[in-house]
Amino acid sequence: xxxxxxxxxxxxxxxxxxxxxRTAEQAVKDQLGALARPDDRVERAxxxxxxxxxxxxxxxxxRNAATASLWFYEHTLGLARALGVNKNAYREILAxxxxxxxxxxxxxxxxxxxxxxxxxxxxxxxxxxxxxxxPELARIVAAARAxxxxxxxxxxxxxxxxxxxxxxxxxxxxAAHANVAVKLIWQHWAAARRRREH
Length: 198
Description:
Layout lengths: L16 H17 L4 H35 L6 H5 L3 H13 L12 H11 L7 H34 L7 H8 L3 H16 L1
Helix pairs in contact: 1-6, 2-4, 2-6, 6-8, 7-8
C-alpha cells in the first residue's frame, strides 16, 4: 500500500455490516422459505439474484470511485473497514482506480502531494463529497451481495428439485421458467448435488 505521509483526521462512518448482512439474508430466507413449490421458488430466487446484481452494478463503481478519491486525495485511513472488505479487496479497488487492473501495482512510499499527482495523472476523479457518500454506497452494495448470497442456494436446490420426480423438468424448461441461461441451471444442479452429498 502506498504511504500518504500526512493522513487525514477525517473518520468515515462504518455501517454495521453484521446487522446489514444478517437482515438482508434473513429477509431472503423468509421470502423464499415461504414458497412451497420449487417452480415458484426458482423463479423468485432468480429474480432476487438479478435485482441484487443490478443494484451492485449500479453502485459499486461509485463506491469504488469514492474510496479512491478519499485515499489518493484526502489520505483517509480506515477505508477497508468503512467498506466492509478485507485489505486485499481494498487494495484491488485502489489498484483498479489507478491502473485499470485490480492486480496492478500501487505506488510505493509517496508523500500526500506525490500521491495526489500520481492519481491526477492516472485520471482518478476527485469527488468532493466522497466521505458523505461512501457509507451509504457501501451499505447498499453489502446488502445486495448478502441478498444474492442467500438466494443462490435456494435457486440451486429448487432447480434440482424441478429436475427430479414428480416434476422431471429438463434444464431448458427450468432456464426458460427462471429466465436464465441453461448453462447456469446445469451449474446449479451440480452445486445442489454437491451440497446434498455432504
